[in-house]
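WARN  no MSA supplied for this record, continuing single-sequence
INFO  ligand: adenosine-5'-diphosphate
INFO  echoing inputs
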Amino acid sequence: MSTDPKHVAATPKQADSSQDVEFSAAEFEALLNAAIDGIIVTDRDGRILRMNAAAESMFGFAAADVAGQTIEIIMNTRDARAHDRYMDNYMRTGERKIIGIGREVVARHRDGREFPVDLAIGEARVKNELHFVGLIRDLTEQKLAEEEALRQREQMSHVSRLTTMGEMAAAMAHELNQPLSAISNYTAACTRLLDQGDENRRDVDRALDQISVQAYRAAEIIQRMRDFARSRESGRQPVDIRDLILAVLPLARMDARANHVDLRIRLEKDLPTINADEIQIQQVLLNLVRNGIDAMKGVDEASRRLDLRVWMEDETHVRIGVTDRGHGVSDQVAEEVFTPFFTTKSSGMGLGLAISRSIATAHGGKLSYFNNPVVGATFFLILPTKAD
Ligand code: ADP
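INFO  complex generated
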């Protein structure tokens, strides 16, 4: 196989002209070296014939050093093997798995450093020989930017969870007060019973059991709050939607109780599994519940009712709706509710809905709302049930 530039000259036809255009070797050379993307030409066995200037600097090799070597020299071992398999398969069956289709692979620099690239492969016949032309785009910067965006989203969502917890501090204090005063009452009773003598032994045992139950209840509340508020990397897993909702329910109920809101739950039977970051979806739900409760602050206690309903929207989507009986979303603020830092509350941060929407979108879902016909608003989250 020759590396003579004349041999790689192609004769592409212009689609909009009857005139044939033939690249001269010099034009082809200029084209190769002006390209921002790396370009590598190989023979049918993956042996490198040419490499442009961009590829030279991307991989740290001079074209002359790698001429005749297989492309394994610039790919990580796993991807190089996969590449060989694809190529073998293509040669045998003509089935296109990478030819003409871009694919993300891991490339390797001369110094051993691995980095992500987008690889597109075209084929060319040169004097009856099959050549492959690989176009390679370094994705390092793009990946770093994506990772940074993800990190910022995680941080924002953590801040938002902490804010939610801050808003729920009063409810938590209220909720913890009950088991703690029960413990204190049972302890006083034990002391009294013990003072009265041994015949009260069974009553003391019963009181001690109650103390342990109440202590467990308090510890559980604290544990749930800690789990929820913890700083963590986001990660998706298959989660049963019912379990996910039941896990966040104690916090939602606690908030509802402290604000005299009648919280009602209706979960359709046979809810599916979704591929989701459990804490983030719980965060969205808790935020919708919190907002619904806030929206009913001016409503008399007997009318404060919040309905959380979950059902299948269609075969591949689940819908979670939170319906309140509050002041609803007025026309003036309708455009803004999902804008970061927009709030109509004196102590609001205005981050909840913005972050909730970005969580929904990142899950391939949707967060929106409508005003109910009579009173209040319904915010709803739609999530795909199949992996995205
Ligand atoms: P915050 O709760 O800190 O204000 P959000 O982003 O959660 O931040 O909400 C932004 C605004 O959207 C709220 O201040 C409120 O005006 C409006 N809003 C949210 N939920 C409701 C609701 N259920 N009913 C009426 N208005 C709502």
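The chain has two domains: 25-138, 147-384.
INFO  checksum written, moving to next record
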